[in-house]
Structure formats: structure tokens, C-alpha cells
């Protein structure tokens, strides 16, 4: 991300908005409605607030004015600060990440075949006054994000959309002004090179028959994926743009920018 000198206009990456929204302290939609109702009644419009309602109103005011963010969000803001101000960025690699990067094109091709539509990788990056991001695939009527599962077990455990991916999707819908989004998980077999790397790591910890048994299991796990039909290797979740959640996101970004201003090394 390019350096941003104006700390009142720091942009946050869509791919990590879920972290920013962890431990969110802003009012929920219902609480906002209640806050407005109580504010009006407290100002003399309508029936006066009861003692219990005044206590509840006070709690709503306290929550509304709270500028604190959670530890996970603080960690993300720190990463943003270090990258913007110093060009520092953690280099994190693991099997799941590497598989996603190496097989991204294969995943897009498989989904295109399964849905009988042509999808291609998006190269455009967009930003507004709040966020910045580069989505995976821009279809005609929706945004599509494609994620490669690490292995069969990881894929099997996918039963719902994680919060982190929901806010990433929300950010992309906001930037591209497209109200529909689909998140597709794809299960692909590992390449021969990936299998060789796994076996190579095994050789540092296992020897003899133990190594051969483990190696055979790695190969077997991969063959299971290869034999599965396409329809068993794709899971898609659809959802739509939500303006209330965008407003909550804006409020949290305001808090994050305030925290950003306090950071130093």
C-alpha cells in the first residue's frame, strides 16, 4: 500500500477488514434505533424516559462514544502503520497460502467449467475514502471470490462463511458498487512439487518404515481428491450488500484511524 501522509484518511485493506471488525464496539442496528428513540424522548418529544430507560440510554451513549478497538483490530492497524510509514511488512508463508497462490488459476478454471461460465482473474485495484482492495473475479452481475482449500479435511469443515470473509466481501461490493457476492471454496489436489516438499519435511522427523508409511499416506490423501467429481470439490456461499454493516464499518474505521494516530516506534 502506498504511503498515506494524512492520518485522517488512512485506507484499510479489504482482505483484512474482518480483523478490524473483531471486538467491534459500535451500536448494532437495533441499538441505533433505540438510541434515536431515547434521544428524542429525552429531548422532550414524546413520553419521558423511565428510570430504567435512562440507565439504558446512558449505556448506549457510552457505547456510542467509545473509541476503543479490540486487540485483533489493533494488531491490524499496527501492521498498516508499519507498512505505510516504514515500508515494513511481515512475510508469512505456509502450505495453505502457497497452495492458494500456486493453484489460483487452476481454481478459477475449475469453477468456470463447473458453472459453465468464463471467469478470469481481476487485476484492477480500487479505493474510496475508507478502504482499498483488489477482488478475485468480477462477473457480470456479481463479485466472485475463489479460495483454494488446503486439503480434504479443511474443505470438509467449511460449513459457513467466516466473519473475516464476510467483511472482505462487503468491502469489495462497496468499492465496485455491485450488491451481490459469492464465495467459492475449491478443493484441488497438490502438485508433484508440493508433495515432494511435504515428504522432504517428513524426512527430517521420520526414518525407515515410519517415513514410508507417512509418505504413502500423503500420496493417498492426494489421490482421494483426484478421484472426487467436480461437484464434490466446490462449495459456494452467496450474500448481498448491507448498508447497516457498511455504516458500522465506517464507525470502526474512524476508531482505527484515531488509534493509528497514537502509534509510534
Architecture overview:
The chain is of the alpha/beta class. 52% of the residues lie in helices and 11% in strands. The chain is elongated and about 80 Å long. 22% of the residues are buried. The mean pLDDT is 89.
Query: Rg, please?
Result: 23 Å
Name the beta content range: 5-15%
Number of E strands: 7
Sheet with the most strands: spatial strand order? 4-5-6-7
Order of helices and strands: EHHHHHHEEEEHHEHHEH
Helical content stands at: 40-55%
**Quaternary status:** single chain
Count of separate DSSP helical elements: 11
Distance N terminus to C terminus? 19 Å
Largest sheet: 4 strands, mixed
Which whole number gives the mean pLDDT?
A: 89
| Strand-pairing-aware structural class | alpha/beta
Uncertain runs are none
Report the principal-axis shape. Answer: elongated
Amino acid at each position: 500500500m502506498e504511503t498515506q501522509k494524512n492520518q485522517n484518511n488512512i485506507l484499510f485493506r479489504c482482505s483484512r477488514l474482518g480483523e478490524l471488525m473483531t471486538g467491534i464496539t459500535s451500536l448494532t442496528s437495533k441499538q441505533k434505533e433505540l438510541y434515536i428513540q431515547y434521544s428524542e424522548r429525552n429531548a422532550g418529544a414524546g413520553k419521558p424516559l423511565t428510570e430504567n430507560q435512562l440507565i439504558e440510554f446512558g449505556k448506549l451513549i457510552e457505547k456510542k462514544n467509545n473509541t476503543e478497538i479490540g486487540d485483533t483490530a489493533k494488531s491490524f492497524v499496527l501492521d498498516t502503520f508499519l507498512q505505510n510509514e516504514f515500508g515494513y511488512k511481515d512475510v508469512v508463508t505456509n502450505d495453505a497460502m502457497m497452495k492458494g497462490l500456486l493453484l489460483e488459476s487452476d481454481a478459477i478454471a475449475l469453477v468456470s467449467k463447473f458453472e459453465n461460465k468464463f471467469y478470469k482473474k481481476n487485476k484492477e485495484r480500487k479505493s474510496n475514502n475508507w478502504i482499498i482492495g483488489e477482488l478475485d473475479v468480477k462477473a457480470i452481475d456479481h463479485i466472485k471470490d475463489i479460495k483454494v482449500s488446503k486439503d480434504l479435511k479443511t474443505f470438509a469443515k467449511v460449513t459457513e462463511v467466516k466473519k473475516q470473509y464476510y467483511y472482505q466481501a462487503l468491502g469489495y461490493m462497496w468499492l465496485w458498487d455491485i450488491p451481490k457476492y459469492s464465495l467459492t471454496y475449491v478443493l484441488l489436489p497438490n502438485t508433484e512439487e508440493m508433495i515432494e516438499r511435504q515428504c522432504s519435511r517428513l524426512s527430517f522427523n521420520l526414518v525407515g518404515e515410519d517415513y514410508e508409511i507417512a509418505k504413502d499416506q500423503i500420496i493417498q490423501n492426494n489421490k482421494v481428491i483426484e478421484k472426487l467429481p467436480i461437484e464434490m470439490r466446490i462449495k459456494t456461499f452467496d450474500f448481498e450488500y448491507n448498508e447497516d454493516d457498511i455504516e458500522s464499518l465506517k464507525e470502526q474505521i474512524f476508531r482505527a484511524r484515531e488509534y493509528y494516530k497514537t502509534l509510534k516506534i
